[in-house]
Each structure stands twice: as C-alpha cells, then as structure tokens.
Amino acid sequence: MSSTNPASGLPATSTTKNNAIWVRETRFGRWFLSTQTWYRYVLSQAVIDFKTLLGERVPTQGHILDAGCGQGLAFGLLEQHFQPATITGIDIDAEQVKKAVSAASQLTTPALAVHTNASASNLTAGSFDLILCHQLLHHTSQQQETLQEFYRLLRPGGILLVGESCRSFINSAPVRLLFRHPEMAQKDARGYIDLVRTNGFVFSETDIQTSRPWWSRRCLGMAQKLGIGLNNTEPTEILIVATKPH
Ligand SMILES: C[S@@+](CC[C@H](N)C(=O)[O-])C[C@H]1O[C@@H](n2cnc3c(N)ncnc32)[C@H](O)[C@@H]1O
Fold this sequence. Notes:
Residues 65-162 form the Methyltransferase type domain. This protein is of the alpha/beta class. The protein has a single domain (30-243), classed as Vaccinia Virus protein VP39 (Rossmann fold, 3-Layer(aba) Sandwich), CATH 3.40.50.150. The chain is 33% helix and 19% strand. The chain has nine helices and seven strands, in the order H-H-E-H-E-H-E-E-H-E-H-H-H-E-H-E. A seven-stranded mixed beta sheet has the order 3-2-1-4-5-7-6, sandwiched between helices. Helix 2 (36-54) packs parallel to helix 3 (73-82). The two termini are 31 Å apart. Residues 1-9 and 11-17 have low confidence and may be disordered. Residues 21-22, 33, 43, 68-70, 73-74, 90-93, 96, 117-119, 134-136, 139-140 line the site of S-adenosylmethionine. S-adenosylmethionine binds next to helix 3 and strand 2.
C-alpha cells in the first residue's frame, strides 16, 4: 500500500530560517541525500550501529515509523534488519514524500509514506513499536513538540532511535555553505540526550553512541592526518536508543 496525504494543509516551504517549522534543504543538500555516500557511510552505518546498540531488544514483526523519511532510503534497510510488519514514513516535504511513496512500493513489507509534520501528525496514538528519527531534529525548531509526538505515537515499551548530527558539525563552514537548517535549532550531544530524556524516554549510557566519523571532520579527516586539530574530541554524531516506559 502506498499513499500520500494531500489534505495535510502543510506549509509548502518556510521563508525564514529563524524558528521555522521547516526550512527546505538546498538543491545540493537534496542531491547529497540521494548519493551512495549518504546511503552507505551515514544512513546504513547508523542502522547497523542502532542494531548493535539494541542487541536483544531488536523488534521483529513490529510496526515501524520512519520520521523525516525523506525519499524513503531507509525503508529497505529497515525491512532488511528489522523484518517489520509494516513501515510508515512521514515527511514534511511533499516532493520527498512522492519519492518515498515510490520506495514504499518496492518493498515486500506493507509500507506507506505520508505527508505530515512529525511534531503534529494525525497518526494513531500507541500504534508504533519502533520509531526511527534519523537526522530530522536538527532540521526543525519544534524539537520538543516532535519528541512529545513520538511519545504519543509509541506503545508503552516502544523504542525510539534518534540519530543526529551535533551543532559543531552543522555549524561548520562547509555545512553552512552547502546545506540549509533553521538557526539555533542544533544541539551538542548532551543537548540531544537531555531533550530525549526530559520528554519521558528512558535510556542508560550504554544506549548512547557518540562519534566523529571521517566525513564530519575538518577537511574530511585530512586535518587529523596532518596533525591539525588532534585535540578536538567533541562528538559530531550521536545515536540514542530510548524506550517509552511501561
Ligand atoms: C537530513 S534529511 C534525513 C532524511 C532521512 N531520514 C535520511 O536519513 O536519509 C531530514 C528530513 O527531515 C524532513 N523534515 C524536516 N522537518 C520535518 C518535520 N517537522 N516533520 C517531518 N519531516 C521533517 C525533511 O524534509 C528531510 O526529508
């Protein structure tokens, strides 16, 4: 099953970067998100790392929500690694949703893609076992509302996977030049941990992974190879496996 929600009434795009619900990614950014570099080194790696963090908690035959699914690149990975009963993708960008509808139709798992705002969807409360939120939060100023919505959508005991790029990376010169994000919405790793925890989710230190992958380092890691910036250990990426308590 594949469908969009044409009656969502969402803003086509935002005109300001300050406190915007949504700032449309640049043309370059939208292209980059469709590359093998993104798919292989960022998205696939995140799903594999989430699976490792989950350990024996990996749900099978669950109902999965991919929040901020973009063009649905994660659908196949979710199908492969989690064998879900259903996959639902949501995104605020109608153009991306069209591509996600097509990606959903390629799966053997029943899947659909819906045009809606992750912070105020019309999806049914408690209807998901697992939510993947990969690289969405730094794109919205409504982070608090988005976490509350995830809490509403998960069943008790359901799992939220948050994968984010931290402020130090998003505010770096190349990223600012090539991509577009709402101002002031990005957090450091501790900020994302606090955001998820203060919205009712539980997790321990072993449910968190921070890293500085090569693609997020100055000059793609060349600075480190040349001995420049060796002391910088601030994480650029964070993964959190959080649970909605029973
Ligand atoms: C960096 S992309 C990540 C796409 C996908 N999760 C991936 O990892 O390939 C961020 C996505 O979040 C979407 N997005 C931003 N704000 C949103 C919101 N409030 N509700 C739903 N989607 C949103 C954007 O349209 C974009 O497709």
